[in-house]
Amino acid sequence: xxxxxxxxxxxxxxxxxxxxxxxxxxxxxxxxxxxxxxxxxxxxxxxxxxxxxxxxxxxxxxxxxxxxxxxxxxxxxxxxxxxxxxxxxxxxxxxxxxxxxxxxxxxxxxxxxxxxxxxxxxxxxxxxxxxxxxxxxxxxxxxxxxxxxxxxxxxxxxxxxxxxxxxxxxxxxxxxxxxxxxxxxxxxxxxxxxxxxxxxxxxxxxxxxxxxxxxxxxxxxxxxxxxxxxxxxxxxxxxxxxxxxxxxxxxxxxxxxxxxxxxxxxxxxxxxxxxxxxxxxxxxxxxxxxxxxxxxxxxxxxxxxxxxxxxxxxxxxxxxxxxxxxxxxxxxxxxxxxxxxxxxxxxxxxxxxxxxxxxxxxxxxxxxxxxxxxxxxxxxxxxxxx
Length: 386
What we know:
InterPro entries: 7tm6_olfct_rcpt. The chain has 386 residues and is an all-alpha fold. It has helices at 9-18, 26-50, 57-82, 84-101, 105-151, 174-226, 232-282, 287-327, 336-349, 365-385.
């Protein structure tokens, strides 16, 4: 029998491409992806240093958005590679969880529901990021074709992103080759972001399925009490399941703690850049197109922040269900020795499972709301000053 998986085929293929999936060629794939990112970042920084002028502030900030996003992805990939052994252990634990569910139809049903949701979310994120990346890339060409081409006799051809090469690039077919390469690379980078976001949601949905199973099993404990059966052996199995959930959640926390911290820091910087472009575009004759382009970029940035905040919030809420499920058992009809077991399990479940940003702050809806408020306040201040 084929063992199901919480990881969708598209997500697995993406992780293999990025070199994060355990196989013989993972190091080659990871180095290839990181090398392409380094080369792209190098030429982007060349552009930034060459246009580091106050008169080109809007153009410079627009370039910084992509450069910061590339830098963040590199940091994420480096962090995940450093913690790859933790990731491999998570994958092994996930396979073991599915094997345990094969013989229990109800458990398999609950895990399958979570797996289907994770597959749907992963595919949706990949599609959405690819579409937004294409819209963002087409922004400059739309602006130039509508305004600058008609107003000026400008024969200088631009690339999809702000980048500068140390050689002549305007000649054909060099320009066309570089344009196609950059478009594919930006789409690949956008899909890499979706893959990392899909991964964390997949892991959290998997552990939530395990939590649903343990809550369901506590109801069976109540039924055994009504039948005057001993629940000691059931408590032993549930405690073991609970320990596995705690261990699995700690591994997720270890894997994404630094990623979450970098996400918060980089999102703040990118939102500042986007806010500046947003205000400048309002007072510019080409503002409508730059505004749409900026909104697309802001949408992608906030999705990244929302995904990891949602994952932390969802994990925290699901962990509360364990304590509630234990309390709802018929502990008052159990022998004194079994009551003590109940007390210890409730005490342990009171420590919520969560994802933190560098172990300094919990990733939750409150954190996401704070980021949204900060971005709105920043744009409001810029609008008043401009």
